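Comment thread on ticket #2218

A.B. wrote:
> Attaching the input chain for the structure job we discussed in standup.
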Amino acid sequence: MLLLPVDSRNANAYTFLMQNAILEHHKDQLIFWNDFPELAALCWNRHTPQMTEETALRLYETNWAFVNRNTMPPHEKEFVTRIAKKFGSYLQGPHRAS
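C.D. wrote:
> Ran it. Output below, let me know if you need it in another format.
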């Protein structure tokens, strides 16, 4: 394992390495956020095309007021319901994801 002292010169490299380590550890739970239109809208500032299911859930939870549930496609509603149940979330009720 490569250990770098974190300072302003290598903070981006450190962040990149940590993100990759996290993604590698959770590779069975990775999703492409662009497959979900409402999630993609929340990921406007993300540079990596993948994230864990749990990260996706936390983004939905944090930004739920900005999610347009009326135009959310059925596969995304099912995804939100599934991950909300899996990780435990107030979004798990069917009234929340629909």
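A.B. wrote:
> Thanks. Noting for the ticket: The chain has a mean pLDDT of 81.
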